[in-house]
Amino acid sequence: MKKLGIVIGALALLAAGYFAGSMSGRSGASSAGASASPAPEKKAERKIAFYRSPMDPNVHSDHPTQDWMGMDFIPVYEDEVAPPKSAVPGRAAITIPADRRQLLGVRSEELRRGPLSRSIRTVGRVVPDERLLHHIHTKYDGFIEHVYVDFIGKYVKRGEPLLSIYSPDLFATQQEYLLARRGVTELAKTGGDTQSRSTALVDAVRQRLLLWDIRPEEIEKLEKEGVPRRTVDLYADESGFVLAKTALHGMRVTPVDSLFDIADLSRVWVLADVYEADLPSIRLGMSAEIELSALPGRKLRGPVTFISPTVEPSTRTTKVRIEVANPGGLLKPDMFADVSLQVDLGSVVVAPEGAIIDAGDRKLAFVDIGEGRYEPREVTLGAKTESGYVVLSGLAAGEKVVVAANFLIDSESSLRAAVDAMKAPSGTQKP
C-alpha cells in the first residue's frame, strides 16, 4: 500500500507538470497572436538633467560616473527636478539645459566685494571769492571832480587814490573844525568851562571827519595849512582788480552808489552744478579736480567748502563751492571749468549693469545657482559707477548673476510663473 501511494503521488506531479506546460503553450500562442496586432505608440524619451550619487544626494555630475566605491551614479531626469521656489511675485525659478544655454548665449559673472570709488563729473564757473570782493562807496554826498582809475580791469594797490570828490557838507565840516580849533586857542588864556566846551567841540568835529573816512594825515595837513580843501580823495581799501566801475567825471554821488568793485583774485571760487541725485555723495572737505579748456593738460585741485541748501528748479542742480588758489591769476572770473569729484564708496558689492533688469516698480537679477538653474532675485541698488551698480541688498559676494540673455530668461521665468499659477489647485497660494 505504501508503494502504491508513492506511485500515485508521482503520477499527480507529472499531470500537474503537463497541465502547466499546456497552459504555457496557450499563453505563448496568445502572445504570438497579440504580436500580430499594431504596435503601440512610443513614449517621448525622458531627458537626463544630471547624475546623483547613490550614497550622497547632494553630490551631482553632468555625465555618467562612479563614486569611490565603484557604485554608478543614478540618473535624475528633468521632469524629476523640482525648481526652487521663487520669492519674487510674478517670477519663477527655471532650469535650462546645457544645449539651450549655449544656443541662447547665457553667460554669468561672479560678484565680488572690494573698495570702490565713484567719479561725479560736472561743469562749473569761476567767480571771485566774495570775502575778497570790495564795493567802494562814499559816506557823504558830492560831485566827482576827477577819476584816477578810469577803466575796468586795472590793478590797484591798497591805499591808492581812486577819485576826488567835492562835497559841500565835507567842505563845511572842515571850516567848522578850523573855527573850533581857533576858538580853543583864543580861550586858552581864560580857562574855565568855556574852554572845555570848545575842546569837546573840536573832538566831535574831528571824529565826524574820521567817520567820513578822512585819513588822519589829511586832518593833520588841514590843521597845518589852516585852509579847507575843496576836494578830497577816495582810496582803495584793499589791493585787487577793478571788476566794475560806475564813477564818471562830474557825476553826482550819494552813499548808496557803488562806484567801484575791487576783487583780490589770488584765491577764487568754482561754483559747480551737481544734480540732486548725486548730492548724498557730496561731503564738505572732499577734494575736487578742475580742468579748464584755457589750460589744457593742467589740473587744479581744491576742497569743497560749501553746499548750497537750495536746488535750482529749472535745472534740478545745487551749487557746490570749491576754493582754488590762483597764483598768477590764471583763473579768471566767468571761465567755464570741468569738475570731477571723487567719491569713496568703501568696500561694496557691484553688480554689472547688464545683470540688472528694470521691471518698472522694482529691479531684478537672475542668480545662477548651478546645473542650469536660475533664481530671480529682487535687488536694491545704490550709486551707479563705471563698473555697474552698488548693491545694497538682494545679492551677495560670491554669487553668480546672469549678465547675458537675462531678458530671455526673464521672459521664460514670467511664463513659468503664469503657467504654475494656472496649474495651482483652488485654495493654494503660489509663491
Write up what this structure looks like.
By secondary structure, the chain is an alpha+beta fold. It has 4 domains: 48-80, no CATH class; 94-106 and 352-423, conserved putative lor/sdh protein from methanococcus maripaludis s2 fold; 120-129 and 265-345, Efflux pump adaptor protein, beta barrel domain (Elongation Factor Tu (Ef-tu), domain 3), CATH 2.40.30; 133-263, RNA polymerase II/Efflux pump adaptor protein, barrel-sandwich hybrid domain (OB fold (Dihydrolipoamide Acetyltransferase, E2P), Beta Barrel), CATH 2.40.50. It has 6 helices and 24 strands. The strands form 4 sheets. A 6-stranded antiparallel beta barrel has the order 6-15-18-17-16-19. Strands 7-14-12-9 form a 4-stranded antiparallel beta sheet, with no helix packed on it. The chain is rod-shaped and about 135 Å long. The relative contact order is 0.16.
